[in-house]
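Box 3.1 A note on notation
Throughout this textbook, protein chains are presented in two layers. The first layer is the amino acid sequence; the second is a token string describing backbone geometry. Keep the layers aligned when reading.
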Amino acid sequence: MIEVKNLNKKHRINERFITGIAKEVLKILGKGSRIELGIVFLSDAAIKPINKRYRNRNRATDVLSFDLGPCGQILISSDTALKNSCIFRTSFEEEIILYVIHGILHLFGYDDETKTEKSRMSKKEKAVLNKLCRRNFSKVLMPQ
């Protein structure tokens, strides 16, 4: 079961579409459908104290993942996604999808603390993203 919640009302997120993307990512990774996963979209202000508490970094971050045994929890800052879309010249939607992939990969043992780990994770992100590219990412946002 996958549950998506948008707690950052500054950005309209299509929770049903994100649920579908997460299911596809799990399928691409060969992970079973019995996984329980929560994905929560937050503001920078909301994710910052969580990053401080669990990673001892007193700043907002893009994605935090928590492996809770049979369950996983992914926290995503949609504020950071918007900022990074401008920096990296991608769309907001692409950043959101990338963060979902990134968070799921963290739950399955991928890390990005060292240069080698970051390279391995980046390659896997790109491979998963390429398989998803047939999707219309514009549906990430809720219709106006």
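The chain has one domain: 2-135. The radius of gyration is 14 Å.
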